[in-house]
Amino acid sequence: MNNMTVAKETRDLLSKLGVAESLYTGGNMASYTPVTGEKLADLKTVTADEAKSMIDKADAAFREWRLVPAPKRGELVRLLGEELRTAKADLGRLVSIEAGKITSEGLGEVQEMIDICDFAVGLSRQLYGLTIATERPGHRMMETWHALGVVGIISAFNFPVAVWSWNAALALVCGNSIVWKPSEKTPLTALACQAIFDKAVKRFGEAPQNLSQVLIGDRAIGEVLVDHHLVPLVSATGSTRMGRDVGPRLAKRFARAILELGGNNAGIVCPSADLDMALRAIAFGAMGTAGQRCTTLRRLFVHESVYDKLLPRLKKAYESVSIGSPLETSALVGPLIDKAAFDGMQKALAGAKEHGGKITGGDRFDAGQANAYYVRPALVEMPEQAGPVLEETFAPILYVMKYSDFDDALSDHNAVGAGLSSSIFTLDLREAERFLSADGSDCGIANVNIGTSGAEIGGAFGGEKETGGGRESGSDAWKAYMRRATNTVNYSRALPLAQGVSFDIE
Ligand code: NAD
């Protein structure tokens, strides 16, 4: 694929998806593709004052939208899902170009957007509260759920469109407006999502203006969203470093936070594991998306009785995996996002070596693109969990460690800062149930006989500890996007006070 072709194809895709050329030409923020390293566009960024005024407009949109019945709001999200179905091939391709995901993952990311729209449409008729028994005769107590306000969304480069949709679809059916600050590394896909949303709005016909807006800019623009008093909830996806800044700032003004931060995910391969299955799950979890998923498998504890069976097979898979342009369907591992990611990977590997790590792969791969960063995924046999193993490095490095005692493996599994995703490979019921129990995996996602990555939208997604504690997507994650009121109605002729308190006035 020659370089001119990618830039030209990008412009064609943007035009097909309905993005105005003026939004990505002649601006002050360059966007690049990790596929070839070439520049794709120059986007116009918003100033802090413009961002503030957009948030004011979003607040006005919220005040109208919250009065639209929820099932009607669901109709807009249904139309968004339809538009995404129509745009799937083009948007998926744009994701591959801008984030470097292989073709099936680019398309899969758009499918995830469609899935959450379907989920949210159903949810729009299920935003229910409880009726609660009251101790007072002739009274009724219940919960009602109301729209919250402007929902701020900050997203990372590695899920450039799905994360927006997880938040947007729920926020919209819950009666909120949305303002999105996408990653500065993937702004074009954000413009495309906004154009697709605008199409849905046009068909819907009666949505308030500025219901969904995009703030193009760097982290300073994200900070405007974080600090603005008219934004009661910010859902921020990115590194733990980002969360350490954003979390306290939101807390200071008593705003809500959904923090979806870094992961340092692990798997345990037990003596009874189905090794064929484990091998495939490990390969996808560790090498898929070039190791750039928050749920990527980064640490593997293998029981000593199966270590020598599994390791040679794993090494073979690492040595033979196809690396190359994500725009060619034969590649399973695409590029790293940029040079900083490559440098971070090399630094972690050097640190692992210092701690006694034996490395297979990890070097730069020649994909015929001098300005792009393709690597061979690294498999590192570690004598113990130390040094870089304890931190997330956002690159395809899998640290493998041998264990003999299940309790020790479990304890090492939990002995890192992050708490996002985890897996156990076992056919032993006791081990599996222990892993899922109160003193098992301490992660927000704990799986048995499947890998750490590739979550479905039906479950609540998120992690504990330094992953931030936020939950998005399915289950009852919608509750974070609404405010709850407890209502007590007295339909009697008396006024009994709770807890037997008396306060009788003449
Ligand atoms: P990043 O933290 O560099 O940036 C993420 C976003 O935050 C960007 O839009 C950036 O502009 C913004 N940002 C950064 N600092 C900010 C600040 N102080 N205030 C406001 N906004 C700020 O992350 P990245 O390199 O784009 O993505 C990779 C990271 O994201 C990894 O750590 C990965 O694990 C994590 N991630 C987590 C999840 C999850 O659901 N837990 C999902 C995807 C990615």
From TrEMBL:
<protein>
    <recommendedName>
        <fullName>aldehyde dehydrogenase (NAD(+))</fullName>
        <ecNumber>1.2.1.3</ecNumber>
    </recommendedName>
</protein>
<dbReference type="InterPro" id="IPR016161">
    <property type="entry name" value="Ald_DH/histidinol_DH"/>
</dbReference>
<feature type="active site">
    <location>
        <position position="260"/>
    </location>
</feature>
<feature type="transmembrane region" description="Helical">
    <location>
        <begin position="145"/>
        <end position="166"/>
    </location>
</feature>
<keyword id="KW-0560">Oxidoreductase</keyword>
<keyword id="KW-0520">NAD</keyword>
<dbReference type="GO" id="GO:0004029">
    <property type="term" value="F:aldehyde dehydrogenase (NAD+) activity"/>
</dbReference>
<feature type="domain" description="Aldehyde dehydrogenase">
    <location>
        <begin position="28"/>
        <end position="484"/>
    </location>
</feature>
<dbReference type="Pfam" id="PF00171">
    <property type="entry name" value="Aldedh"/>
</dbReference>
<comment type="similarity">
    <text>Belongs to the aldehyde dehydrogenase family.</text>
</comment>
<dbReference type="InterPro" id="IPR044638">
    <property type="entry name" value="ALDH7A1-like"/>
</dbReference>
<keyword id="KW-0472">Membrane</keyword>
<dbReference type="InterPro" id="IPR015590">
    <property type="entry name" value="Aldehyde_DH_dom"/>
</dbReference>
<dbReference type="InterPro" id="IPR016162">
    <property type="entry name" value="Ald_DH_N"/>
</dbReference>
<keyword id="KW-0812">Transmembrane</keyword>
<dbReference type="InterPro" id="IPR029510">
    <property type="entry name" value="Ald_DH_CS_GLU"/>
</dbReference>
<keyword id="KW-1133">Transmembrane helix</keyword>
<comment type="subunit">
    <text>Homotetramer.</text>
</comment>
<dbReference type="InterPro" id="IPR016163">
    <property type="entry name" value="Ald_DH_C"/>
</dbReference>
